[in-house]
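Thread: adenosine-5'-triphosphate complex, take 2
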Amino acid sequence: MSMLLQLKQLAKKRPGSTDSYLFRNLSAAVAEPQIIHLLGFSGQGKSTLLRIIARLSGADAGELYLFDQPMAAYSPEEWRSTVCYVAQQPIMLPGSVEDNLRIASHLQQIPFDRDYARQLMERMELHLDWSKAAAQLSGGEKQRLALIRALLLRPRILLLDEVTSALDIHSQHAVEQVLLELQRSEGTAQIWVTHQLEQARRISQRIWFLAEEQLLEDSSPQAFFHSPRTEEARRFLQTSLEKVTN
Ligand SMILES: Nc1ncnc2c1ncn2[C@@H]1O[C@H](COP(=O)(O)OP(=O)(O)OP(=O)(O)O)[C@@H](O)[C@H]1O
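Output below.
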């Protein structure tokens, strides 16, 4: 079967360490455009794994395949316009909101799709003056602008690193709806990192649980949340629940 994305035996050492690993022999495959949530305790390497998949950081061992082709078959630019990483604390480019929106078309040398940008902004309830300096936006506005900037690249795979963490629940739902719709209509696969389990329950179609240097669980949300296989996942769910109720 043809695969969108394959992670084969990936390993990454802890920064600064020679023999301690964040993860190793980590393998997974994405065959269809699903919404996957990558969950785990803090510091397990979730962001690091997303950054490796985005080719923003290198693995110490292992291989990535995109559409059944090894990473070496793609230039970094080709890869990064197909597999797009959106950070929790996005970096705004110098200039205005519009300058930030135009960057995708500038990089890809394609006409700027103003209507699509406007539509995404409306649907994410981002009502901004396009001439405003991007540096002056709030955290939540920057998050949505960075997400729209990535969507204008029309990536096949989106890597979303806590991209709604600065949003109120209303804006969060608006963003989730846009991304769900994008998966349904365009077939955009998505790997989300979040600490909001409610969000994972709402929209996830598959859970990857990173612990003990592995994707310890790779399962349906139903199975993960209701009958996790491992003690570590049960502990994670219990601890996360306590955090919400305390
Ligand atoms: N640039 C860096 N320099 C030094 N240490 C780093 C760097 N990036 C990550 N680390 C360390 O690597 C480990 C994994 O970090 P990472 O951000 O990938 O974890 P995470 O699972 O996403 O955590 P969180 O849920 O808290 O965001 C952490 O211990 C972190 O401190």
